[in-house]
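Render O-succinylhomoserine (Thiol)-lyase in 3D.
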Amino acid sequence: MTRFSTRAARAGINADPAHGAVVAPVSLSAAYRRDDPAAPGPFDYARTAHPGRDLLARTLADLDGASGAVVTASGMAAIDLVLNDLPIGARIVCAHDCYGGTRRLFDARARQRGFDLVYADCTDPEALSEALKPGAALAFFETPSNPRLRITDLEAACALARKAGAVSVVDNTVLSPALQRPLELGADIALASLTKLINGHSDMVGGVVCVREAELAERLSWWANAAGTGGAAFDAFLALRGLRTLPVRARVQSEAALELASRLNAHRGVARVDYPGLKGHPGHAIAARQQDGFGPLLSFELSTGVKAAHQLTQRLSLFTLAQSLGGTESLVAIPALMTHAAMSPEARAQAGVGDGLVRLSVGLEHVDDLWDDLAEALEHRA
Ligand SMILES: *Cc1c(COP(=O)(O)O)cnc(C)c1O
Protein backbone atom coordinates (compact mmCIF):
# COMPACT_ATOMS: atom_id res chain seq x y z
CA MET A 1 0.00 0.00 0.00
CA THR A 2 1.25 3.51 -0.77
CA ARG A 3 2.02 5.92 2.06
CA PHE A 4 -0.50 8.23 3.78
CA SER A 5 0.53 11.47 2.04
CA THR A 6 0.41 9.76 -1.35
CA ARG A 7 -3.08 8.45 -0.73
CA ALA A 8 -4.17 11.89 0.54
CA ALA A 9 -2.68 13.71 -2.48
CA ARG A 10 -4.49 11.31 -4.83
CA ALA A 11 -7.86 11.74 -3.04
CA GLY A 12 -10.56 11.75 -5.72
CA ILE A 13 -8.05 12.00 -8.59
CA ASN A 14 -8.92 10.07 -11.79
CA ALA A 15 -12.28 9.15 -10.32
CA ASP A 16 -14.55 10.48 -13.08
CA PRO A 17 -15.79 7.72 -15.36
CA ALA A 18 -17.93 10.08 -17.49
CA HIS A 19 -15.40 12.57 -18.90
CA GLY A 20 -12.02 11.55 -17.54
CA ALA A 21 -11.77 14.74 -15.45
CA VAL A 22 -8.60 14.60 -13.34
CA VAL A 23 -10.42 16.15 -10.37
CA ALA A 24 -13.77 14.52 -9.62
CA PRO A 25 -16.60 16.92 -10.54
CA VAL A 26 -19.39 18.07 -8.23
CA SER A 27 -22.60 16.20 -8.84
CA LEU A 28 -25.46 18.26 -7.46
CA SER A 29 -28.34 16.13 -8.73
CA ALA A 30 -30.85 15.10 -6.08
CA ALA A 31 -32.01 12.08 -8.08
CA TYR A 32 -30.40 9.49 -10.38
CA ARG A 33 -32.20 7.90 -13.35
CA ARG A 34 -33.14 4.23 -13.41
CA ASP A 35 -33.38 2.13 -16.54
CA ASP A 36 -35.58 -0.40 -14.78
CA PRO A 37 -38.07 0.55 -12.01
CA ALA A 38 -37.05 -2.52 -9.99
CA ALA A 39 -33.28 -2.00 -10.29
CA PRO A 40 -31.58 1.20 -9.09
CA GLY A 41 -28.11 2.01 -10.42
CA PRO A 42 -25.15 2.72 -8.10
CA PHE A 43 -26.89 5.99 -7.15
CA ASP A 44 -30.60 6.50 -6.68
CA TYR A 45 -31.41 9.44 -4.43
CA ALA A 46 -28.87 11.88 -2.98
CA ARG A 47 -29.96 11.58 0.65
CA THR A 48 -28.97 7.92 0.45
CA ALA A 49 -25.77 8.43 -1.53
CA HIS A 50 -24.19 10.68 -4.14
CA PRO A 51 -20.86 10.33 -5.96
CA GLY A 52 -18.98 13.09 -4.09
CA ARG A 53 -19.93 11.90 -0.61
CA ASP A 54 -19.20 8.32 -1.62
CA LEU A 55 -15.74 9.23 -2.88
CA LEU A 56 -14.96 11.22 0.26
CA ALA A 57 -16.22 8.40 2.53
CA ARG A 58 -14.14 5.77 0.71
CA THR A 59 -11.05 7.99 0.89
CA LEU A 60 -11.46 8.71 4.60
CA ALA A 61 -12.13 5.02 5.37
CA ASP A 62 -8.93 4.15 3.52
CA LEU A 63 -6.87 6.81 5.35
CA ASP A 64 -8.14 5.63 8.75
CA GLY A 65 -7.85 1.91 7.97
CA ALA A 66 -11.63 1.46 8.36
CA SER A 67 -13.88 -1.01 6.58
CA GLY A 68 -16.48 1.69 6.08
CA ALA A 69 -17.15 5.38 6.69
CA VAL A 70 -20.23 7.58 6.86
CA VAL A 71 -19.86 11.27 5.92
CA THR A 72 -22.29 13.48 7.83
CA ALA A 73 -23.46 17.09 7.65
CA SER A 74 -21.39 18.12 10.70
CA GLY A 75 -19.09 16.75 13.36
CA MET A 76 -21.98 16.76 15.84
CA ALA A 77 -24.11 14.77 13.37
CA ALA A 78 -21.28 12.20 13.29
CA ILE A 79 -21.31 11.93 17.10
CA ASP A 80 -25.11 11.74 17.25
CA LEU A 81 -25.12 9.05 14.54
CA VAL A 82 -23.09 6.74 16.78
CA LEU A 83 -25.66 7.14 19.59
CA ASN A 84 -28.35 5.71 17.28
CA ASP A 85 -26.87 2.25 17.70
CA LEU A 86 -27.47 2.22 21.48
CA PRO A 87 -30.52 0.81 23.27
CA ILE A 88 -32.46 2.95 25.72
CA GLY A 89 -30.75 3.02 29.11
CA ALA A 90 -27.31 2.03 27.76
CA ARG A 91 -24.30 2.99 29.84
CA ILE A 92 -22.01 5.56 28.20
CA VAL A 93 -18.61 6.51 29.54
CA CYS A 94 -17.39 9.82 28.17
CA ALA A 95 -14.19 11.80 28.67
CA HIS A 96 -14.96 14.48 31.26
CA ASP A 97 -13.02 17.10 29.28
CA CYS A 98 -14.48 16.49 25.84
CA TYR A 99 -15.64 19.22 23.46
CA GLY A 100 -18.43 21.34 25.01
CA GLY A 101 -20.89 20.57 22.21
CA THR A 102 -20.39 16.84 22.75
CA ARG A 103 -21.22 17.21 26.42
CA ARG A 104 -24.35 19.25 25.63
CA LEU A 105 -25.55 16.57 23.18
CA PHE A 106 -24.75 13.63 25.50
CA ASP A 107 -26.54 15.30 28.43
CA ALA A 108 -29.66 15.95 26.33
CA ARG A 109 -29.71 12.46 24.78
CA ALA A 110 -29.16 10.88 28.20
CA ARG A 111 -32.18 12.71 29.63
CA GLN A 112 -34.27 11.76 26.63
CA ARG A 113 -33.26 8.10 26.21
CA GLY A 114 -32.40 7.24 29.79
CA PHE A 115 -28.72 6.65 29.06
CA ASP A 116 -26.65 5.92 32.14
CA LEU A 117 -24.04 8.57 31.35
CA VAL A 118 -20.80 8.82 33.33
CA TYR A 119 -18.07 11.38 32.77
CA ALA A 120 -14.64 10.11 33.72
CA ASP A 121 -11.04 11.21 33.56
CA CYS A 122 -10.09 8.77 30.79
CA THR A 123 -6.40 9.68 31.12
CA ASP A 124 -6.50 7.85 34.47
CA PRO A 125 -6.74 4.04 33.88
CA GLU A 126 -8.17 3.43 37.36
CA ALA A 127 -10.91 6.02 36.97
CA LEU A 128 -11.69 4.64 33.51
CA SER A 129 -11.88 0.99 34.70
CA GLU A 130 -14.14 2.07 37.52
CA ALA A 131 -16.49 3.89 35.13
CA LEU A 132 -16.53 0.96 32.68
CA LYS A 133 -17.19 -1.66 35.33
CA PRO A 134 -20.97 -2.05 35.28
CA GLY A 135 -21.12 -3.21 31.65
CA ALA A 136 -20.82 -0.05 29.58
CA ALA A 137 -22.04 -0.09 25.96
CA LEU A 138 -19.95 2.83 24.67
CA ALA A 139 -16.68 4.49 25.69
CA PHE A 140 -16.12 7.91 24.13
CA PHE A 141 -12.56 9.25 24.16
CA GLU A 142 -11.09 12.52 22.95
CA THR A 143 -7.31 12.83 22.76
CA PRO A 144 -5.74 15.33 22.80
CA SER A 145 -8.78 16.77 24.53
CA ASN A 146 -10.10 20.17 23.58
CA PRO A 147 -9.07 22.64 25.07
CA ARG A 148 -6.73 21.27 27.78
CA LEU A 149 -4.86 18.89 25.44
CA ARG A 150 -4.87 15.99 27.89
CA ILE A 151 -3.61 12.72 26.43
CA THR A 152 -5.39 9.37 26.76
CA ASP A 153 -3.32 6.25 26.10
CA LEU A 154 -5.58 4.86 23.37
CA GLU A 155 -4.13 1.35 23.27
CA ALA A 156 -4.71 0.93 27.01
CA ALA A 157 -8.08 2.72 27.08
CA CYS A 158 -9.51 0.81 24.09
CA ALA A 159 -8.33 -2.49 25.60
CA LEU A 160 -10.17 -1.64 28.84
CA ALA A 161 -13.30 -0.75 26.88
CA ARG A 162 -13.11 -4.00 24.92
CA LYS A 163 -12.72 -6.02 28.13
CA ALA A 164 -15.88 -4.36 29.48
CA GLY A 165 -17.73 -5.14 26.24
CA ALA A 166 -18.00 -1.48 25.23
CA VAL A 167 -17.60 -0.08 21.72
CA SER A 168 -14.72 2.40 21.83
CA VAL A 169 -15.12 5.68 19.95
CA VAL A 170 -12.39 8.29 19.52
CA ASP A 171 -13.09 11.89 18.57
CA ASN A 172 -10.00 12.50 16.42
CA THR A 173 -10.93 16.05 15.36
CA VAL A 174 -7.94 17.84 16.90
CA LEU A 175 -5.34 15.71 15.10
CA SER A 176 -7.02 14.14 12.04
CA PRO A 177 -5.85 10.79 10.60
CA ALA A 178 -2.69 12.51 9.35
CA LEU A 179 -1.42 12.69 12.94
CA GLN A 180 -3.29 9.87 14.72
CA ARG A 181 -5.14 6.77 13.52
CA PRO A 182 -7.26 5.45 16.42
CA LEU A 183 -8.34 2.22 14.67
CA GLU A 184 -4.66 1.16 14.50
CA LEU A 185 -4.54 1.68 18.28
CA GLY A 186 -7.54 -0.58 18.93
CA ALA A 187 -10.56 1.74 18.66
CA ASP A 188 -13.79 0.50 17.03
CA ILE A 189 -14.78 3.91 15.68
CA ALA A 190 -12.71 7.01 14.80
CA LEU A 191 -14.83 10.05 14.13
CA ALA A 192 -13.94 13.63 13.30
CA SER A 193 -15.35 16.98 12.39
CA LEU A 194 -14.31 17.64 8.79
CA THR A 195 -14.84 21.33 9.53
CA LYS A 196 -11.52 21.55 11.35
CA LEU A 197 -8.10 20.23 10.29
CA ILE A 198 -9.29 17.75 7.63
CA ASN A 199 -10.88 20.33 5.34
CA GLY A 200 -8.56 22.91 6.85
CA HIS A 201 -9.84 26.01 5.02
CA SER A 202 -12.76 26.97 7.28
CA ASP A 203 -15.22 27.01 4.39
CA MET A 204 -17.48 24.01 5.00
CA VAL A 205 -19.06 22.06 7.87
CA GLY A 206 -19.02 18.28 7.95
CA GLY A 207 -18.19 15.14 9.86
CA VAL A 208 -17.15 11.54 9.37
CA VAL A 209 -17.53 8.26 11.25
CA CYS A 210 -14.89 5.64 10.32
CA VAL A 211 -15.77 2.14 11.50
CA ARG A 212 -13.59 -0.94 11.98
CA GLU A 213 -16.32 -3.57 11.45
CA ALA A 214 -18.34 -3.67 8.24
CA GLU A 215 -21.52 -4.71 10.05
CA LEU A 216 -21.52 -1.68 12.35
CA ALA A 217 -20.63 0.58 9.40
CA GLU A 218 -23.70 -0.81 7.59
CA ARG A 219 -25.99 -0.13 10.54
CA LEU A 220 -24.72 3.46 10.83
CA SER A 221 -25.19 3.96 7.06
CA TRP A 222 -28.74 2.74 7.46
CA TRP A 223 -29.37 5.36 10.17
CA ALA A 224 -27.70 8.11 8.12
CA ASN A 225 -30.08 7.40 5.23
CA ALA A 226 -33.15 6.89 7.41
CA ALA A 227 -32.57 10.11 9.34
CA GLY A 228 -31.02 12.08 6.46
CA THR A 229 -27.78 13.05 8.22
CA GLY A 230 -25.45 12.69 5.22
CA GLY A 231 -23.20 15.50 3.99
CA ALA A 232 -23.94 17.66 0.93
CA ALA A 233 -22.25 17.45 -2.48
CA PHE A 234 -20.41 20.75 -2.53
CA ASP A 235 -19.13 20.25 1.01
CA ALA A 236 -17.82 16.81 0.02
CA PHE A 237 -15.98 18.40 -2.92
CA LEU A 238 -14.37 21.02 -0.65
CA ALA A 239 -13.38 18.46 2.00
CA LEU A 240 -11.80 16.23 -0.65
CA ARG A 241 -9.85 19.21 -2.00
CA GLY A 242 -8.68 20.12 1.52
CA LEU A 243 -7.73 16.53 2.23
CA ARG A 244 -5.07 16.51 -0.49
CA THR A 245 -2.92 18.99 1.44
CA LEU A 246 -3.79 17.67 4.92
CA PRO A 247 -0.45 15.94 5.64
CA VAL A 248 1.56 19.05 4.70
CA ARG A 249 -0.68 21.45 6.63
CA ALA A 250 -0.77 19.19 9.68
CA ARG A 251 3.04 18.97 9.75
CA VAL A 252 3.75 22.69 9.28
CA GLN A 253 1.00 23.80 11.70
CA SER A 254 2.22 21.30 14.33
CA GLU A 255 5.81 22.57 14.02
CA ALA A 256 4.66 26.17 14.45
CA ALA A 257 2.43 25.26 17.42
CA LEU A 258 5.37 23.57 19.16
CA GLU A 259 7.57 26.61 18.57
CA LEU A 260 4.93 29.00 19.95
CA ALA A 261 4.21 26.70 22.92
CA SER A 262 7.93 26.63 23.80
CA ARG A 263 8.26 30.40 23.57
CA LEU A 264 5.08 31.00 25.61
CA ASN A 265 6.32 28.50 28.18
CA ALA A 266 9.50 30.56 28.64
CA HIS A 267 7.60 33.87 28.90
CA ARG A 268 7.35 35.37 32.38
CA GLY A 269 3.77 36.57 31.83
CA VAL A 270 2.48 33.06 31.15
CA ALA A 271 1.49 30.88 34.11
CA ARG A 272 0.96 27.54 32.31
CA VAL A 273 1.02 26.17 28.76
CA ASP A 274 -0.89 23.04 27.69
CA TYR A 275 0.75 21.43 24.67
CA PRO A 276 1.59 17.72 24.41
CA GLY A 277 4.72 18.52 22.38
CA LEU A 278 6.34 20.12 25.43
CA LYS A 279 8.61 17.72 27.33
CA GLY A 280 7.05 18.78 30.65
CA HIS A 281 3.48 17.93 29.53
CA PRO A 282 2.14 14.96 31.54
CA GLY A 283 1.04 13.16 28.35
CA HIS A 284 4.18 13.90 26.31
CA ALA A 285 5.59 10.35 26.21
CA ILE A 286 2.25 8.78 25.24
CA ALA A 287 1.59 11.48 22.62
CA ALA A 288 5.05 10.97 21.14
CA ARG A 289 4.30 7.25 20.85
CA GLN A 290 0.73 7.24 19.53
CA GLN A 291 0.74 10.43 17.40
CA ASP A 292 2.65 11.40 14.26
CA GLY A 293 2.75 15.05 15.35
CA PHE A 294 1.47 17.18 18.22
CA GLY A 295 -1.21 19.13 16.34
CA PRO A 296 -2.18 22.78 15.77
CA LEU A 297 -3.95 23.42 19.09
CA LEU A 298 -2.48 24.80 22.33
CA SER A 299 -3.83 26.53 25.43
CA PHE A 300 -2.34 28.73 28.12
CA GLU A 301 -3.17 30.80 31.16
CA LEU A 302 -1.67 34.16 32.02
CA SER A 303 -0.19 34.84 35.44
CA THR A 304 -2.26 38.04 35.56
CA GLY A 305 -5.72 36.46 35.46
CA VAL A 306 -8.98 36.37 33.57
CA LYS A 307 -9.45 40.02 32.54
CA ALA A 308 -5.91 40.24 31.16
CA ALA A 309 -6.54 37.07 29.14
CA HIS A 310 -9.70 38.52 27.62
CA GLN A 311 -7.85 41.76 26.76
CA LEU A 312 -5.01 39.80 25.19
CA THR A 313 -7.38 38.21 22.66
CA GLN A 314 -8.41 41.69 21.50
CA ARG A 315 -4.85 42.94 21.03
CA LEU A 316 -3.86 40.18 18.64
CA SER A 317 -4.04 40.93 14.93
CA LEU A 318 -2.79 37.69 13.34
CA PHE A 319 -5.04 35.50 15.53
CA THR A 320 -8.70 36.09 14.73
CA LEU A 321 -11.02 35.90 17.74
CA ALA A 322 -13.31 33.09 16.55
CA GLN A 323 -14.45 29.54 17.30
CA SER A 324 -13.18 26.55 15.31
CA LEU A 325 -9.67 25.21 14.83
CA GLY A 326 -7.34 23.55 12.35
CA GLY A 327 -7.72 26.06 9.49
CA THR A 328 -4.92 27.74 7.55
CA GLU A 329 -5.67 30.96 9.46
CA SER A 330 -4.68 31.28 13.12
CA LEU A 331 -7.51 31.72 15.63
CA VAL A 332 -7.73 32.60 19.30
CA ALA A 333 -10.61 31.69 21.61
CA ILE A 334 -11.64 31.89 25.25
CA PRO A 335 -13.20 28.39 25.60
CA ALA A 336 -15.21 29.26 28.75
CA LEU A 337 -17.06 32.00 26.83
CA MET A 338 -17.05 30.42 23.38
CA THR A 339 -16.50 26.77 22.44
CA HIS A 340 -17.33 25.45 25.93
CA ALA A 341 -19.99 27.97 26.96
CA ALA A 342 -22.67 25.27 26.69
CA MET A 343 -21.12 23.43 29.65
CA SER A 344 -22.19 24.32 33.19
CA PRO A 345 -19.59 26.15 35.33
CA GLU A 346 -19.32 22.95 37.44
CA ALA A 347 -18.63 20.81 34.35
CA ARG A 348 -16.02 23.31 33.19
CA ALA A 349 -14.39 23.25 36.60
CA GLN A 350 -14.33 19.42 36.51
CA ALA A 351 -12.72 19.54 33.07
CA GLY A 352 -10.19 22.17 34.16
CA VAL A 353 -11.41 24.81 31.73
CA GLY A 354 -10.67 28.03 33.63
CA ASP A 355 -12.37 31.34 32.79
CA GLY A 356 -9.02 32.79 31.72
CA LEU A 357 -7.85 29.88 29.59
CA VAL A 358 -6.73 31.09 26.15
CA ARG A 359 -6.80 28.62 23.25
CA LEU A 360 -4.81 29.10 20.05
CA SER A 361 -5.27 27.29 16.77
CA VAL A 362 -2.05 27.81 14.83
CA GLY A 363 -2.36 28.29 11.08
CA LEU A 364 0.08 28.64 8.21
CA GLU A 365 1.29 32.21 8.80
CA HIS A 366 5.04 32.53 9.40
CA VAL A 367 5.77 31.41 12.95
CA ASP A 368 7.95 34.47 13.69
CA ASP A 369 5.13 36.81 12.70
CA LEU A 370 2.75 34.89 14.94
CA TRP A 371 5.23 35.14 17.80
CA ASP A 372 5.78 38.88 17.27
CA ASP A 373 2.02 39.34 17.47
CA LEU A 374 1.76 37.31 20.69
CA ALA A 375 4.83 38.88 22.30
CA GLU A 376 3.56 42.38 21.59
CA ALA A 377 0.14 41.62 23.05
CA LEU A 378 1.77 40.06 26.14
CA GLU A 379 4.04 43.09 26.67
CA HIS A 380 1.14 45.51 26.38
CA ARG A 381 -0.51 43.78 29.31
CA ALA A 382 2.63 43.76 31.47
C1 LIG B 1 -15.73 21.21 16.43
C2 LIG B 1 -15.67 19.93 17.12
C3 LIG B 1 -16.73 19.02 17.04
C4 LIG B 1 -18.02 19.34 16.30
O1 LIG B 1 -17.83 19.48 14.92
P1 LIG B 1 -18.83 20.39 14.01
O2 LIG B 1 -18.35 20.13 12.63
O3 LIG B 1 -18.67 21.80 14.48
O4 LIG B 1 -20.22 19.90 14.25
C5 LIG B 1 -16.61 17.81 17.70
N1 LIG B 1 -15.51 17.51 18.40
C6 LIG B 1 -14.47 18.36 18.50
C7 LIG B 1 -13.27 17.95 19.28
C8 LIG B 1 -14.51 19.59 17.87
O5 LIG B 1 -13.49 20.44 18.00
